[in-house]
Design goal:
The radius of gyration is 25 Å and the shape is elongated. It folds into two domains: 262 residues, 3-Layer(aba) Sandwich (Rossmann fold); 78 residues, formyl-coa transferase, domain 3 (2-Layer Sandwich). The chain has 18 helices and twelve strands. The longest helix has 24 residues. The mean pLDDT is 95. The protein is α/β, with parallel strands linked by helices and 407 residues long.
Length: 407
């Protein structure tokens, strides 16, 4: 990486009040914390439900929660109480951004809809992380990752051996939508910083994942009338797969004409390498299944190590198929330092991932996830509450003071 002078993190000095839970919203605000934002996570007295997902060393500090909430403060408030709502309003009055993932009706009932909060803070960027766009009939329906994978067509194109739709074994809808949310927030913050204007931003999971899916899968429907059906034929080919070798599996993808030529020459198919249709990208795309099938016929003849060595030698993209466990010893990831060890004040020695982007303003590293209500007292004091007022709120159950003794 070229040397360059250090720059301040782009969101230093930006305060975000984060009333999101599970993964969609929290992943996005974790990204913003990496960029220097101060993120105040608002939790109900029972805490974000993802806190309870195993494994964990101590209650409420599950691995998935910690990975998606590093670098945040936690303030625990009961928003069904007047005192809890008033505390949230005072925190919002001090913030640049408010983001929530409650259903729209629930937010309005609590008085934390956009119209209510912009009266408190006109410059506020207000972000609604929702399941469905508010203009549609599903606007107030609950939505989680599995539901959105199914609704967006993602499950339908991931059929199993029996033809049944399958969910991708990752929370793809949450994580992809989190990237859209991050993008939207950065754009709104930029507008706020340059013009002083606040705004309402809506980020719907269903529409985000469908937008993501249809970049390639719109396919023939890009034209009116359609020139073909929906679905990018190359990636939907039954022959597109990982390929069995003598001892395990590889993934390889000759893509350019020169790469296909070199691949076929490597396996002794010189005549095929010279075929007109193989050397014409448009014609090749119509018969891509035949080419993938030919790879599958060839790969059992060599070991994975042999294929990786030979295909790298002729500059054809290839990799061994890694298991999740393999990633911890992958030479590329070891060299780039993606996995980082860090110490948590109460949870001890932990391992996480650093933000993978390199820039003059390096993302924060070594950040830790908070205990439920760990920063309630500190944050309420910062917006003008006295110790006696905070004690009264804790005693009434309107707030939770969860600061661990060793934190």
């Amino acid at each position: 990486m070229p040397s360059q002078p250090a720059a301040p993190r782009p969101l230093e000095g930006t305060r975000i009040v984060d009333l999101t839970s599970i993964l969609f919203g929290p992943i996005a605000t974790h990204f913003l914390a990496n960029m220097g934002a101060e993120v105040i996570k608002i939790e109900a007295p029972g805490g974000d439900v993802i806190r309870s997902v195993q494994p964990m060393r101590s209650p409420g500090m599950g691995a998935v929660f910690m990975n998606s909430n590093r670098g945040k403060s936690s303030v625990a408030l009961d928003l069904k109480t007047d005192a809890g709502r008033q505390a949230l309003e005072r925190l919002v009055a001090s913030a640049d951004v408010f983001v929530h993932s409650m259903r729209g009706r629930a937010a309005s009932k609590l008085g934390i809809d956009y119209d209510s909060l912009k009266r408190i803070r006109p410059e506020l960027v207000y972000v609604f992380a929702c399941g469905y766009d508010s203009q549609g009939p599903n606007a107030d329906l609950p939505a989680y990752d599995d539901i959105i994978q199914a609704a967006s067509g993602l499950a339908a194109i991931n059929t199993g051996p029996n033809g049944a739709p399958q969910l991708v074994r990752s929370v793809m809808a949450d994580k992809i939508s989190a990237l859209y949310l991050t993008q939207a927030l950065l754009a709104a913050i930029m507008t706020q910083k340059t013009s002083g204007r606040g705004q309402y931003v809506e980020v719907p999971m269903f529409e985000c994942l469908t937008h993501f899916m249809m970049v390639e899968h719109m396919f023939g429907h890009c034209f009116e009338p359609p020139l073909a059906g929906a679905g990018y034929t190359r990636v939907l080919s039954e022959h597109r797969q990982t390929y069995r070798t003598k001892d395990s599996y590889i993934a390889t993808l000759p893509y350019t004409t020169a790469q296909w030529q070199r691949f076929f020459e490597l396996i002794g198919e010189t005549e095929l390498a010279r075929e007109d249709w193989v050397n014409d990208a448009s014609q090749r795309s119509l018969r891509i299944g035949e080419l993938y099938a030919r790879i599958a016929e060839a790969t059992p003849s060599r070991t994975t190590e042999e294929w990786v060595r030979e295909l790298k030698r002729i500059d054809v993209p290839v990799t061994a198929v890694n298991s999740l466990e393999d990633l911890f010893s992958d030479p590329q990831l070891e060299a780039s330092g993606l996995f980082e060890d860090y110490q948590h004040p109460t949870e001890g020695h932990l391992r996480g991932t650093r933000h993978p982007i390199r820039s003059a303003a390096p993302p924060r590293s070594g950040m830790v996830a908070p205990h439920l209500g760990e920063h309630t007292r500190t944050m309420l004091a910062a917006v003008g509450y006295t110790d006696a007022e905070i004690d009264a709120m804790v005693a009434s159950g309107a707030a939770i003071d969860g600061a661990p003794e060793s934190a």
